[in-house]
Amino acid sequence: MNRKLIAICAFTLTLVFAVWQFAHFNTEAKSCFSFADNAETKVVYLTFDDGPTDRVTPKILDVLDEEDVKATFFIIGRNAERRKYLINREFRSGHTVAVHSYTHRYDEIYRDKQSLLKDIADCNAVIRSVTGKNSNIYRFPGGSFNATPELVDCVVQSGFRYVDWNAGLCDAEIPNATAEMLYRAAVATSEGINHVVMLAHDSTDKINTPAALKMVIKYFKDKGFAFDVFR
Ligand SMILES: [Zn+2]
Q1: 19 CA distance to ligand 1 centroid (A)?
Q2: Domain boundaries in the chain?
Q3: How much is the pTM?
Q4: CATH class label, 2-32+43-228
Q5: Which pairs from 1-10 meet CB under 8 Å and 24+ separation?
Q6: Measured in angstroms, how far is the CA atom of residue 226 from the centroid of ligand 1?
Q7: Residues 90-117 pLDDT 10s
Q8: Ligand 1 centroid, distance to 105 Cα (angstroms)
């Protein structure tokens, strides 16, 4: 059963990566970040979506501190409004605090351009209240393939760089996953990739993600990867 779920997750990620590569290689203006210059360098970008939460985010931050690794947090503004101390901790620790959504409600966000830009602006208002400036780094809720090309264009034209992912802990896909299962998913989905954009979540039910993260970081350190953040 677990293997089946990881296989499904791996398949989904392969699909996601295909879309991401398409966006990267075929629409240069839309591409978020170029990795082409140093294709031989092994880099992993740890990214956390849907936080901050009181239950999981502090544990993620503790692991990152212990391992002296920086990450990118794509936050939900509505969660962050009542937990600015966590955004502050992310920022002060040298992590990137980036825009994910204010409401995370797909029906509202993806209704039209105005709704999408308002959602981004509302999220940025929370970020700005802590860091002193807007973020221009964005992750579409569900990934950019959830948005129409017009909406993707609109975000890019508004000065944002968006980033999808090409590997993941599958902590949203595998229910009640143990840390070991999440770790195995991260290893399986990043196999053979030199520039890994690793998706994980610090939402409140992802209780085993911090322990998995510890193993994932050790794995990439052992493989000689550098860690970087989107900036
Ligand atoms: Zn999300």
Answers
A1: 18
A2: 2-32+43-228
A3: 0.88
A4: alpha beta
A5: 2/174, 2/177, 2/181, 5/170, 5/173, 5/174, 6/170, 6/174, 6/181, 6/184, 6/185, 6/188, 8/173, 9/168, 9/170, 9/173, 9/174, 9/185, 9/189, 10/185, 10/188, 10/189
A6: 25
A7: 999 999 999 999 999 999 999 999 999 9
A8: 9
